Structure formats: C-alpha cells, structure tokens
C-alpha cells in the first residue's frame, strides 16, 4: 500500500478496480501523511475527470499542517500532474507568527514551496500586501522568500497617505532583504527611488530614512545607508533633502573595535549647499547678520586613539579630537542634538603615558574655528597621581599638577563688535571718559 501513488489510486477509483471506498481513502491519507497533516473523511473528497482529488469539508473549512505552517481554506484540490495542493476560498496561512490572508494559495509538494497570490498581512506596526508570495525550502531551512509587487505602509487604511513599493522583494531569513526598484510614494506621487537596495536584517545596517518638517528647513527627508568595511568598521552614507535649504551628503566612519565608547574610532564628513544660509534655526532671518556664512557649509570630525608603539590597550597612546566646521551656525541649523551636547567642539591632541602611580599627559589645544570663543594650550604638561602613601607617615596623597602656555581668544563676531564700538567712540569728542573706554576695549583685543 505504501508504494501506491495518488495518481494510481485515482485511476483505480475511475476504473472501479478497488473493492471498497474505505481502502481508497486509507491510501489517500497515507500519501497525505508524507507531506503534512490534512484532516479528511470519507464524505469530503471526490475525484475529477482530470484525475485530481478535490477536498471540500462539510464544515466549510479544512485544516492543513506542514513544515511549521498551518493553512485554513474552504477548499483544496490535489493536482497529481504537478504534485500541488491548491487552496481556495478565504485562505488563511499561519507561518512563523505571521498571518497571511487571501483567496488562493498553492503548495508544491516535491519542493515544499508555497505560492500565494494576492496575499496580505501585517507585522505591527507594518501593513503589507503582495501580488504573489513564494518561498523555497521548508521550515527552518527556508532559503529565500519572494514577494512580487509588494506594498508597505504603517497606515491602517485602504488608501494610505504614503507607501513603499517595489517590483520584487527577496527575503533571505537571518541575512538580508533585497528590494528591486524601491520607491517611496506620497499618494501616487514618487518621492524617492533606488533601482536596487539590499537591507541587512541586522538593525545596525542597511537603509533607513526620517521624513519631517521644520520651520527653518521646510519638508525634509534624511536618508542613511550603513554597511561594513571588512570586519572592523561601519560606514554610514548620508543623503539629506531639504525643500527650503537644498541637499547635503556625507558619510560617518566608525571603528567597531571600540563599541563601548564614542570618544574615539570615528571620522565624519558632511557637506551641504545651503540655498538660504541667512535663515536662523527659528525659521526667521537672523537678527545678527550672518556675513561670514557661505552657501557651502560642511563639517569634518575626527576622534581617534592610537596606541604606541603598537599593541592595543597599552600604556602609551595619543588621543586626537579634531573638528573643522564651515561656520558657527552649522550645528545649530542642521545637527541640533549635537549642538545641545557640545555647541563649540574642541580641537585637541593629547599624548598620555600611564604608570602604576598615575599618568602623565602632554596636551595641545588648537584654534581651528575662529568663529568660536576658545582658549589654546600650546602645550600643557600635566601629572595626575592616584591615592598613595607618603613614605611611612600614615598619610596619603592624591592630586594633579599642570604647566602650560595658555591663551584666551574671543570669537570673530565678538571681535567685530568690539572694533565697531571703538570706531563709534572715536567719532565722539575726545575726553578722559572716552579715552579710558577706548583703551579698555583695545586691551581686550590683545
């Protein structure tokens, strides 16, 4: 009986060569047991003239289980020629915690491949549908899931305000999602297009975007694509579009050797052509003229640590923190979170030698951005001591000492303001008060 195929069973049914219907049904169940669990009885199947087996339960809903997948449908037909089970009539598929619904689905027995036409589903907060869903492999061995003409949105509406579409999406479980002709639509109007997009399933990698609106920027779309370089670095490409300011692009390079710190192992470059640099962060024309602000605005940042002479985590290293910005309003306009944390970033190179009683450092602080008020230390030598005994006195000592050449520098805007006041005072009739005020202001410029 185990050697009897469904095709030969159907032939026996048609020719009347099998003694009883119960024997025929047992053979059919035996075949179905090799591909999955489909609950049937003697009253809910028939054989068509084409040689197919039609299963239509009296209860109105059949249940099929195979490879961790459950299918509920109003009707199923086994097509012997193609070794397929075709489900129809309010089909619901439960697979790996996700529910798919549609009118038709086909399961190919020899390849264990599911082909679902017009199925729709949701994974909170995402809703999606596809013209066709198919997979290769079975259970935990699924190698790829293909979606033809899918649409994605987070709006629970038949007519969402925006959609993400593609001609085809291939999902490689545990690895990546590949989009072919990726598009973002507002209604039926295209906003963004990529011919090919590979999105790793690791949340740290792949493509992400942030849409929004601000009074000083207009409508914007911030795009980022992240990928690895070898096994030690992460690169993030940026492309930002602002309706009132223009477009900006750049990249962030991060070393994955230092995952627990943000102080080193980073390089950032970003450039933007600003079509309206005189507009302030509040969306209004700045009350202080931005005479020094050009259309070409940028940032270059380097934070890194180099151990000398070689092995990492040694006791001799140099820390580098260099930040070059086009103007003093750049962070305030385009990177407000960084502006709140550090509105005037430093420029420092620091050589450090650690020892069992503390550390010695030789630091240089430079003035690269003249529009910031800052001090320079060229150089500063510092000694830091951990808590330690003073000979055998029972007393302990901890502290630090530093020696350096320090200078204070005012910002260019402040210097222009003071020189303007001096020019005004010099136009007044000379007297002792004006002379003292001019002398005081000039001394602050030294």
Q: How does this model look, in words?
A:
The chain starts with 5 loop residues before the first helix and ends with a helix. The protein has helices at 6-15, 21-33, 330-334, 336-341, 412-426, 432-444, and strands spanning 37-38, 45-47, 53-55, 62-66, 69-73, 75-79, 84-95, 98-108, 113-117, 120-123, 126-129, 132-136, 144-148, 151-153, 162-165, 168-172, 176-186, 189-200, 206-214, 218-229, 233-242, 246-255, 266-274, 296-307, 316-325, 348-355, 358-365, 374-389, 396-409. Helix content is 14%, strand content 50%. The strands form two sheets. An eleven-stranded antiparallel beta sheet has the order 19-20-21-22-23-24-25-26-27-28-29, with no helix packed on it. The model is unreliable at 1-25 (pLDDT under 50). The protein contains six helices and 29 strands.
Overall average residue pLDDT: 77
Provide a count of the helices.
6
Helix percent band: 10-25%
Shape: elongated
Unreliably modeled segments: 1-25
How much of the sequence is in beta strands? over 45%
For the CA atoms, what is the radius of gyration? 36 Å
Strand order of the largest sheet: 19-20-21-22-23-24-25-26-27-28-29
Distance between the termini: 105 Å
What summary fits the major beta sheet? 11 strands, antiparallel
SS content category? mainly beta
Counting DSSP E segments of at least 2 residues, the number of strands comes to 29
